[in-house]
Specification:
CATH class: Alpha Beta
CATH architecture: Alpha-Beta Barrel
Distance between the termini: 36 Å
Number of helices: 12
Number of domains: 1
Number of strands: 8
CATH topology: TIM Barrel
Mean pLDDT: 97
Strand content: 5-15%
Shape: globular
């Protein structure tokens, strides 16, 4: 490591984080189902995840109201506390198109009990998003809140805005910016950033579990992955195997996880159907409509559902063979 940057006062813990899907009532307005959410959060925590990410892309964050976001944070904290895991990290999406909106979302998340905030770069007018705009945006939000900020790099959802490792390195020097989630899939950013910074200075996470081992091998700290909504024990086991030095076993499980994660690449509807089909019953949420996307978006058709089942089926036996963490 080459940086003399002091460690952050509250680093983001190592590990596996599901960007938790939002569950809705079977009503015309599809209100958030807080009871179902509590059950699903509890299921994931029992599965051994190291934290929960709320109001992210998989949660359909742009379709959630400010009050719904706060309610979900409160319910997640309650689920963790009730299971004896009050320290479990809850990361709230705070992405807004303006600095002011992002600060307001950060204040809301902090007041609801969130531990960290996950923040995309501004991207509506992509041509106006210069490096200066990105640096100013993140620094201004981080200055204005006590909520530690995790940068969210996802060019595919941000009009192609892609923050390079030099920009991320600049932001790492802010005392309230603690890490980055790389949904850009760029392993080079991992190795460059981890060469400069320790986990405590600035942590780096893969944005999917199909490259968890490459991220960890490059010095990264874990992953935020949609498939952990569906097979949390399997992804947690993959992380544990690598850290225990059981490299061959980890590589074998990594391949199986990567094959199954193809379905999550198909979008929110496919991910939510998989969560219902493979995890809904175990979580105690049996209404398939709870897992539908929020309107105007629609669930997958029968053909896509059958494909999702086929490409993920091989993880069922592994998931069922693993014990609950709590």
């Amino acid at each position: 490591m080459t940086s003399t940057l002091p460690p952050k006062s509250k680093p983001l813990p190592h590990g596996v984080y599901p960007p938790v899907i939002s569950l809705y009532k079977s009503t015309p307005r599809q209100e958030i189902d807080l009871d179902a959410s509590y059950k699903f959060f509890s299921h994931l925590i029992r599965g051994g995840v190291d934290g929960l990410v709320l109001a992210g892309t998989n949660a359909e964050a742009v379709l959630l109201s400010p009050e719904e976001r706060k309610d979900l944070v409160k319910i997640a904290k309650k689920a963790a506390s009730d299971l004896g895991r009050p320290e479990l990290a809850v990361i709230a999406g705070i992405s807004g198109q303006s600095t002011n909106e992002s600060i307001r979302l950060a204040e809301d998340a902090l007041s609801a009990g969130a531990d960290f905030g996950l923040l995309l770069p501004p991207n509506y007018w992509a041509k106006a998003v210069t490096e200066y705009v990105i640096l100013s945006f993140y620094r201004d939000v981080a200055d204005a809140t006590e909520l530690p900020i995790v940068i969210y790099s996802f060019p595919a959802m941000c009009n192609g805005i892609d923050m390079n490792s030099d920009t991320l390195s600049e932001l790492a020097h802010h005392p309230n910016i603690v890490g980055v989630k790389l949904t850009c899939g760029n392993a080079g950013k991992v190795t460059r950033l981890t060469q400069e910074y320790t986990h405590e200075q600035f942590s780096v996470y893969a944005g999917a579990s199909d490259w968890l081992i490459p991220c960890l091998a490059g010095g990264g700290s874990g992953c935020v992955t949609g498939i952990a909504n569906i097979f949390p024990k399997s992804v947690a086991k993959l992380y544990t195997l690598w850290n225990a030095g059981q490299i061959q076993e980890a590589k074998e499980l990594q391949g199986l996880v990567a094959q199954a994660e193809k379905a999550c690449k198909e979008g929110i509807a496919a991910t939510k159907y998989a969560a219902f089909h493979f995890a809904g019953s175990a979580a105690g949420v049996n209404d398939p409509k709870a897992f539908w996307p929020r309107k105007p978006y629609t669930p997958c058709g029968n053909e896509k559902n059958a494909w999702v089942e086929k490409v993920m089926q091989h993880l069922v036996q592994i998931e069922q063979s693993l014990p609950d963490a709590v």
